[in-house]
Amino acid sequence: MNLTSRISAGQGGFVLFAITPPRQSTPAEQLPEIADATIERLRHLDLDGLVLYDIDDESSRNPNERPFPFSPTIDPSDYRSEYLQQWDAPVVVYRAVGKYQREELAAWLTAQDADRTLTVMVGAASSGTVAPVSLADAQALRSELHPNLLLGGVAIPERHSRRENEHLRLIAKQEAGCRFFVTQVVYDLNAAKNLVSDYRYECEARGQNPVPIVFTFSACGSMKTLEFLRWLGVDVPRWIENDLRHATNPLQASLDQAIATAVDLIDFCRRLGVPFGLNIESVSIRREEIEASVELAAQLTAHVRSAAP
Amino acid sequence: MNLTSRISAGQGGFVLFAITPPRQSTPAEQLPEIADATIERLRHLDLDGLVLYDIDDESSRNPNERPFPFSPTIDPSDYRSEYLQQWDAPVVVYRAVGKYQREELAAWLTAQDADRTLTVMVGAASSGTVAPVSLADAQALRSELHPNLLLGGVAIPERHSRRENEHLRLIAKQEAGCRFFVTQVVYDLNAAKNLVSDYRYECEARGQNPVPIVFTFSACGSMKTLEFLRWLGVDVPRWIENDLRHATNPLQASLDQAIATAVDLIDFCRRLGVPFGLNIESVSIRREEIEASVELAAQLTAHVRSAAP
Hints:
2 copies of one chain form a homodimer.
Chain A: H1 3-8, E1 14-19, H2 31-43, E2 49-52, H3 76-83, E3 91-96, H4 102-111, E4 117-122, H5 135-145, E5 150-155, H6 157-163, H7 166-175, E6 178-185, H8 189-206, E7 213-218, H9 223-231, H10 238-246, H11 250-272, E8 276-281, H12 287-306
Helix pairs in contact in A: 4-5, 6-8, 7-8, 8-11, 10-11, 11-12
């Protein structure tokens, strides 16, 4: 079963790899080789799909200086259609809905092939921002214009730690059409388990089936990348920070830690009967961190395939 | 090596079982059989020592109603000398120092056999309480009157989650003579790892050796017991609460969870080179929870002995 049929059936067990499109400032003549190098890296992995992020300037949500400067990136849907045609598995295209006019979004939704494309809609980064289209508007547009296009939403375990209602937000998103959820990078295993558990029992109480939750993992090879993860709102426990800071090989330590966290979470989801997927990304553009994330994807794919119940 | 020589050498790898002495209201003629039943339960375990708690009325530290009513218990040192003479391994006798006059405490300290007795001194439950003897006074008394009597202190991972300085408190207690630490019941693995990690790297930065941290585990078979753990200040993650609430056999679920947490923490301490001990208690007086804690001690002792590096 491919990604879209699995998600349509409410099933998990899939593995994705997430890419941020190149910066808009990248010379156009370099884009084909960047895309080819990416496809080449991922070709030997047994992936079920790609994720393409849509990066918005999120400086409004965090008053602290961004550890890596923001630079606008190419539209993920344009990047895919122009440079990633070789990739034939489904692609989850993110839409930072606050960036678009209503007509643009409507045209994009209508034009998609629901067998090849899924979308995750993300609201504006800060509630202080006034966007032309709200997340609720965008979700309603999809229901109206293209109800077969599979819709996902973001799930944030860290928000559950602070407000204890993220499971209710997920259920509200399900009511708005979401058929899967994707988390931020998971470092806080406890927070992720709390969210999965509360979500699962709330679904049961309402007589609903849980939909797949896709957990994101990444290798982190430097304190600068860790600082960036924190800036993005990821809770990195002190002991993991200490491990990385004192490791002879931080990238290997991070890989080991991500695998241990993923394996624990997979066991937990299986025990609770919550469908899950995995999503691997590199949050940095350093070559060695990208390669470590590819290695992470290889190991986690092997684990998911071998241990499938 | 027995418990006292291990701790004197800064080594871990030991397993203790903790008992709260019977209530003062217990008819005196029942005490011998209660003590015998306890010894009988523990005799087949390969324990390195007993812990005897000294219970103070802690209602001052928590304005919420205590889920199990407070009832004064027999002095642990008296209980030991009168009813637990059959027990020949060392005993860690708690002293809630706020309960005693200076002379009482001095006399007790002086009278102990340092080969058979260790002590953990605990300060008053709330800083609003004025006690005749402060924790610092009591620690100083031991240094002065009986420096060979091994002293322990409490370590609270939950406090580290909130204030991020528990590792510094441990080091200050080490400077006041502590040679080991005992935690509350551990349910929040992440909090325990954060404390161990910060403590280990702070010791390294100061050129000190870490002393054994004794992690306490318990079986919890009911929501009432869980509520009591929370009242005592133990952070029980939501997913563990949900597991117990929905389990067909909550006691077995709790046992499985405690073993998984202990095994993870043991691996973590070994990897970081922090000496550790285990302490198993029953926080409730229900027979089945006591028996489950004995079973927990049996399984964890086997694990520690078999997997010793």
